[in-house]
Design a protein that fits this description.
alpha+beta, 5-stranded antiparallel beta sheet, 4-stranded antiparallel beta sheet, 31 strands, 38% helix, elongated
């Protein structure tokens, strides 16, 4: 018993009490609490900094974009002046301001030209008398196209005088000096336009490649004269050859004459509101058009916009209509494009800008309106005089000079971005020389008469088109691969497959774009039947291989460990790919006459571009797959094993467990993966920049090219002038991308939260 008592003591030893209040443990607890607070503050400050940075980017983009949508501003420049030299002058025929806004010109009905200062007291700088024949007087005036300083004066004896005013800039004693002068490009002797010597009530002129074309009217008779200048190469002498154009007589008196800059059309405004258009090459009428719908209204002023293609027709009700020649059912027709409204008073003057498709209009009550034709925008309506006035607009469209009741008043016009409007950015616009309204992005041209076409619709469409085709390829492959890797694949194989796929994300997109543009695009073009056969035969080959594998004896199938079956598909996919691409030439000969591209273009009417959306979908889909796969695979793999094992224990098959438990539980993560992949596809730059033709067109055709917002910003931002409309529209494109990403991520987060709440009980 004694020995047993020693072996089995009757009382257990008392446990030692731990002291949690020792100085060491207290210091450790304080240190951990401090580290927790520091980490919490660090994460909070980092998150707020990210949000603040995004907010600052948003406001910076908005600050650059908003000035485009502000109207024009007119400010009085100096005091009204009544210079002494103006007191005894005749009625003003023309006012003009030179490029530097320092010298102005005034031409009156007596043929007297006065040059004077634009600013200050309007001091007289020089004067000249035009060589008007004795006994003749000036009855009419016509101007060449906007931007030209050439004029034609119609005289009472049937003659015309072609005059130009020029301004020479010199720097004597390092001081800028502008010397105005009058020149006569076709000689000081007037040209006889009407052989009968009748008064010319209206005149027009145009200087083109074929020479000088003059037109004039005597009542309801229209006269036209073509002058060609020929130079003798040996003597250097220049001679003028004349050719008169025979035009029919009109029924009503002529109100205005305008000549197309290509010397194709002569526009004759006659009667109350009728326009007769003559084909100058055929010397035949094109048609008669009614310019105003209101029978009580009449045309009061007509002017041509920059380039001479558009006619701006002002009427007695204060309306202004834009017309130009466009192709119709029976050939070229004069069509009414858009209209503007000033006030209720008749339009007395229309001044086109010399560098943009904008114009300024004055009415009989002294109201001034600033408009832009293509943007269909009214930027300003403001009174500048108490009654009818004569005005001049500077070549830069930033200075206005108004003469009214013997006084001269200067104005500063601030109108930096008239060509931008919501309709011009997002709606179809009918541009000059186009047959119908269209969405067009064409920001630059070598022609000085060019108007920028800044529609963001084709760029936005191209962005969504590229993302759609990329996601069409990437989403099914990435999601299915993620589900198989996380749910069916053996762990040992998963540890090898997942890092390899994630490593694809490290491949620079510029390399992918370079590969797609130089190799993939021509290869796809040469193997179109094989590419489509590959897309069709690959899933069929996988299903056939799976069916054949299921028919094999168990003794063979059990030799492959669970989760390693996917390795058997590698030779199957390679064989299917080799078969599809190897048969491409034979398929092309059998079904498409030897050239599938020509078959698509000629037989189906589907345009084909080598660098197209199919190439973008293949290349960008390859780049997007790792993003979607990695996040979706983590979401599926993170589903608790207890849910999977519980479902299997209750009798569900692995497939039922996958579709009804695993995927539903992982759906928030899968949806987030898709949204992140879509965001990557929308913002991708280098692949679409190098793998597409960069053509901003709106066509869902998979064989056509495209241009995205991001690629457009990358291409054109280095070429844009800082602060210009083009520059700000590019910032607007960046703002659209940022807004789209923000809206898409916000919607994705809301949907993900709802999915998480819905399936949280599983």
């Amino acid at each position: 018993m004694t020995d047993m008592a020693k072996d089995f003591p009757t009382a257990a030893p008392q446990p030692q009490r731990l002291d949690f209040n020792t100085p060491a443990l207290q210091r450790r607890r304080r240190r951990r609490a401090f580290e927790d607070r520091l980490a919490r503050w660090y994460v909070s400050i980092g998150g707020l900094a990210v949000l603040g940075a995004i907010t600052l980017i948003f406001f910076y983009l908005a600050q650059v974009v908003l000035p485009m949508f502000q109207g024009a501003e007119l400010n009085v420049h100096g005091e009204p002046q009544r210079p002494a030299w103006l007191a005894d002058q005749g009625e003003a025929l023309l006012l003009a301001v030179e490029e530097q806004n320092q010298v102005a010109m005034r031409l009156d009905t007596r043929g007297q030209v006065r040059f004077f200062e634009v600013d200050g007291e309007k001091r007289l700088l020089g004067q000249a008398a035009l060589p008007i024949p004795e006994g003749a007087e000036i009855l009419s005036l016509g101007r060449d196209q906007p931007g030209s300083n050439r004029l034609v004066l119609g005289l009472s004896n049937g003659q015309v005088l072609v005059v130009g005013h020029s301004y020479r800039v010199t720097y004597p004693d390092n001081r800028k000096t502008i010397t105005p002068s009058i020149d006569y490009p076709y000689g000081e002797a007037p040209i006889q336009l009407d052989p009968q010597g009748r008064p010319l009530q209206k005149v027009a002129m145009n200087v083109g490649n074929d020479g000088l074309l003059l037109a004039g009217s005597t009542g309801n008779q229209v006269l036209a004269l073509e002058l060609s200048r020929e130079e003798n190469l040996l003597s250097g002498e220049t001679t003028l050859s004349e050719r008169r154009l025979e035009l029919p007589q009109l029924a009503e008196p002529v109100k205005a004459l305008l000549i197309d800059p290509r010397q194709l059309w002569l526009y004759v405004i006659n009667g109350r509101s009728t326009a007769d258009v003559f084909d100058l090459r055929q010397q035949t009428p094109n048609g008669r058009y009614k310019l105003l719908a209101d029978p009580q209204a009449e045309v009061t002023e007509v002017a041509a916009l920059l380039g001479g293609i558009s006619l701006m027709v002002g009427d007695s009700t204060g309306g202004i209509q834009q017309w130009f020649m466009a192709r119709g059912e029976a050939g070229p027709e004069l069509k009414n494009i858009r209209g503007f409204q000033l006030n209720g008073s008749p339009i007395v003057q229309i001044l086109p800008e010399e560098r943009r498709k904008g114009f300024v209009a004055l009415d009989a009550a002294g109201n001034l309106g600033v408009f832009h034709s293509t943007a269909h925008r009214t930027l300003l309506i403001e009174p500048v005089a108490d009654a009818a006035a004569q005005a001049a607009l500077s070549p830069r469209a930033d200075r206005l000079l108004v003469e009214s009741a013997g006084r001269l008043q200067g104005f500063e016009l601030d109108n930096p971005h008239p060509e931008i409007s919501w309709s011009a950015l997002w709606s179809k616009v009918w541009y000059e020389s186009y047959d119908e309204p269209k969405y067009i992005w064409q920001s630059t041209s070598a022609n000085s008469d060019f108007e920028p076409k800044l529609s963001l619709s084709p760029l936005t469409f191209g962005t969504l088109k590229a993302a759609f085709y990329a996601m069409l390829l990437a989403a099914p492959m990435a999601i299915c691969a993620a589900i198989y890797t996380a749910y069916f694949m053996a762990p040992a194989m998963r540890t090898k497959v997942k890092p390899v796929i994630e490593l694809m994300e490290a491949l620079p997109t510029v390399i992918l774009g370079f590969f797609a543009g130089l190799f993939l695009a021509p290869y796809v073009e040469a193997h179109l039947p094989g590419i489509f056969s590959l897309l069709l035969l690959t899933p069929l080959g996988i299903l056939a291989a799976a069916y054949g594998w299921s028919r094999l004896p168990e003794s063979i199938r059990l030799r492959v460990p669970d989760g390693w079956e996917a390795a058997l598909l590698i030779p199957v996919i390679l064989a299917v790919g080799a078969l599809a691409l190897g048969m491409s030439g034979h398929l092309e000969n059998w079904f498409f006459g030897g050239d599938m591209r020509l078959w698509l273009s000629n037989d189906l009417g589907i345009p084909f571009d080598q660098r197209n959306a199919l190439v973008v979908g293949l290349a960008m889909g390859f780049a997007v797959i790792p993003n979607i796969y990695s996040i979706a695979e983590d979401a599926v793999f993170s589903v608790p094993k207890s849910l999977t094992l519980g479902s299997l224990a209750l009798g569900a098959t692995p497939w039922q467990t996958l579709t009804r438990v695993v995927i539903l539980t992982a759906s928030p993560g899968i949806f987030s993966a898709l949204m992140i992949g879509l965001g990557r596809a929308v913002g991708e730059t280098m692949i679409v920049l190098m793998a597409t033709g960069n053509t901003p067109i709106m066509d869902i055709n998979i064989f056509e090219g495209l241009r995205t917002l991001a690629a457009n910003v990358a291409v054109e931002m280095p070429e844009s002038e800082v602060g210009s409309s083009h520059y700000r529209v590019l910032f607007l494109a960046a703002l659209v991308l940022l807004s789209f990403t923000f809206i898409m991520n916000t919607a994705a987060e809301m949907i993900r939260t709802r999915l998480r709440k819905k399936y949280a009980s599983l």
